[in-house]
Write a structure and sequence with these properties.
- The protein has one domain (3-115).
- The protein is mainly α.
- The longest helix has 34 residues, at 3-36.
- The chain has four helices and no strands.
- The chain has helices at residues 3-36, 43-68, 72-83, 87-115.
Length: 116
């Protein structure tokens, strides 16, 4: 995998965590707060923040799809994870595991070459 593909996957992983937490933490909290109090001014900025994070996630997902040549099913799976509350947490964990495996793969190959 080339460096630009690895960077695109890293960006997707980094935005998936805040995007996953923005729906339940921000929107549900803001909605509850506006119902039990007179604090209605928070919903618009919280909704906009969630929207920006979702759009960034979608753009980074399309970038990874283009660079890594993922199959459509995998891209659809990660998109569904973005729509589900806390779904991005699982997506972040999958991407982190793949990133860790990519980082250790060259070391394992070098060990095999040295011992062979």
């Amino acid at each position: 995998m080339d460096a630009k593909t690895a960077q695109a996957m890293h960006r997707l992983r980094l935005v998936s965590l805040p995007e996953a937490l923005s729906f339940p933490a921000l929107l549900i909290f803001g909605s509850l707060l506006s119902r039990i109090s007179d604090v209605d001014f928070l919903m618009m900025p919280l909704g906009m923040l969630h929207g920006v994070l979702f759009v960034l996630y979608a753009v980074f997902l399309l970038d990874v799809w283009n660079r890594a040549k993922w199959p459509v099913g995998r891209v659809a799976f990660f998109f569904v994870l973005a729509v589900l509350p806390f779904g991005g947490l699982y997506g972040e964990r999958v991407l982190r595991r793949e990133e860790r495996e990519r980082a250790t793969a060259p070391d394992a190959r070098r060990e095999g070459e040295v011992s062979a």
